[in-house]
Amino acid sequence: MKHKRIYWALPVCFLLILALFCAGFFLLPKQSFAENEKRVLSEPPVFSWQSLLDGSLTEQAQTYIADHFPFREAFVGLHAYWEQLLAQNGDSGIYRGKDGYLFATQGAIDLGKEKSNIDAIRAFANRNDLKTTWMIVPCAGATLGDKLPKFHKAYRDGEMLATLRENIGDDAMIDTEALFKEHLDTQLYYKTDHHLTSEGSRLLYEAFCKQNGIAPHDFTLTKTTDDFYGTAYSKSGLWLTKPDTLEIWEEDGGDYTVTITEGTNETTSDSLYFPAHLKDKDQYPVFLDGNHALVKIQNNRCHNGKKLLILKDSFAHCMTTFLSAEYETIYMVDLRYHRSPVAELLQSEGIRDLLVVYGAENLATSTDIAWLTMLG
User: Fold this and answer.
1) What's the rounded Cα separation, in Å, for the pair 286 and 101?
2) 3-state class (DSSP) for residue 214
3) Kind and range of the H or E element at 190?
4) Could you tell me if 141 and 181 are in contact, meaning their C-beta atoms sit under 8 angstroms apart?
5) Spatial distance between the Cα atoms of 286 and 198, rounded to a whole number of angstroms
6) Mean pLDDT across the stretch 90-105?
7) Which of 94, 248, 285, 315 is positioned for an S-S bond with 290, CB 3.0–4.6 A?
């Protein structure tokens, strides 16, 4: 009799747990945004005969259920740590390294694609008679090999930077590999994010100044936060990882006007920093408000007539808060969002200097740089 009770107890318990989760799914409030994962969650599927017949309705329903399953983030975390126990480090796209570092794995790299992107930028620069400097940043995994787990796939940033050297002709290049190797005693990258720390970005700024015969400005540490979680943390599910420290360094007496343009919308700020983002889960946009199509930075204390165009991804944001001290005007163009002729901007503003700032992997994989052929 006792064995029969146990026999029936197991399926009954399973059905009760299933019923509780089903009730939770329908009764608990739904979130629209996953704070830890920094992404928008899926909307309820909308029925149509077409979506039913082509199977997309089922896919939408499965995605919606997965995104709004009760206690979803807790299960995501349990799954991530379970993978660690099973020695499946990196299966989620993130390696758990030493000393609290989280490293993004590297996708497929096409050196031919990188060369075509380099050629597109160089052709654009030659058409517009621009003096060009390349500042291409290797990823943390390629730089901090001693922090990686024992078993990991190779990072190809060295090959990508070698391809750059072979194809830029007389253009100037900041040797980021050598620079970072000289400063491994500095925390160059955030532990939970793929970006450079403020110290790492400042090294890039100082290297640019040295190459161009500029005496770097002095900056003062004005604000520090100790609860920064980056993109690697969001993708990892390793919710017990300690946060990073994010620092803001400002020029003494700096006076700037920052104009952000998205299509026909234009907003203006009197600071390079947007401290409202420090209250968000994603704090990195504190630097120049994150990704935008076009950002104009006017240094109101600088009247040297120097103007600079930066073609970039987000690796440029923190570094530019330092570099802005050296130019009267800087224009930052992000080709992921910018769809207006860049050559017209150069001509109307009289810009003759170009700085290219990308993560090495982004330079090798971007499909947006080709817009320069049409917009340049």
Assistant:
1) 22
2) coil
3) none
4) no
5) 12
6) 94
7) 285
The CA distance from 208 to 340, in Å, is: 28
* DSSP string across 141-176: HHH-GGGS-SS-PPP-HHHHHHHHHHH-TT-EE--H
CA–CA dist 242, 92 (Å, integer): 19
Judging by beta carbons within 10 Å of its beta carbon (0-12, 13-18, 19+), is residue 279 exposed, middle or buried? Answer: exposed
Question: What backbone torsions phi and psi does residue 111 show, to the nearest 5 degrees?
Answer: -65, -25
Q: What is the largest CA-CA distance in the chain?
A: 93
Q: Is the dihedral of CA 192, 198, 199, 201 positive or negative?
A: positive
Contacts of 238 (CB under 8 A, 6+ apart): 77, 80, 81, 84, 94, 96, 102
pLDDT in tens, 2-39: 555 555 555 655 555 555 545 544 555 656 555 554 55
Give residue 366's region: left, alpha or beta (phi > 0; psi -120 to 50). Answer: beta
DSSP state of 216: P
Q: Is 96 helix (H, G, I), strand (E, B) or coil?
A: strand
Q: CB neighbours of 1 closer than 8 A, spacing ≥ 6?
A: none
Mean pLDDT across the stretch 164-181?
96
Residue type, 29: P
Ramachandran area for residue 350 (φ above 0: left; ψ -120 to 50: alpha; else beta) = left
Residues forming beta bridges with residue 246, ordered by sequence position: 225
Q: Give the CA distances from residue 64 to residues 30, 53, 55, 266, in Å, rounded to whole numbers and listed in that order.
A: 10, 19, 15, 35
CA distance linking residue 132 with residue 140, whole number of Å:
25
Question: Which residue spans within 36-129 are E strands per DSSP?
Answer: 39-40, 94-96, 102-104
Name the phi and psi angles at 187, rounded to 5. -75, 100
212-222 pLDDT tens trace: 999 999 999 99
Beta bridge partners of 182: none
Report how far apart, in Å, the C-alpha atoms of 231 and of each of 40, 284, 367 are. Answer: 14, 10, 21
DSSP string covering 229-290: --HHHHHH--TTSPPEEEEEEEETT--EEEEEEETTEEEEES-SB-GGGGGSS--GGGBTTS
Tokens found for residue 335: 């080709």
Q: How many CB atoms neighbour CB 57 within 10 A?
A: 17
Rounded-to-integer distance, Cα 206 and Cα 323, Å: 9
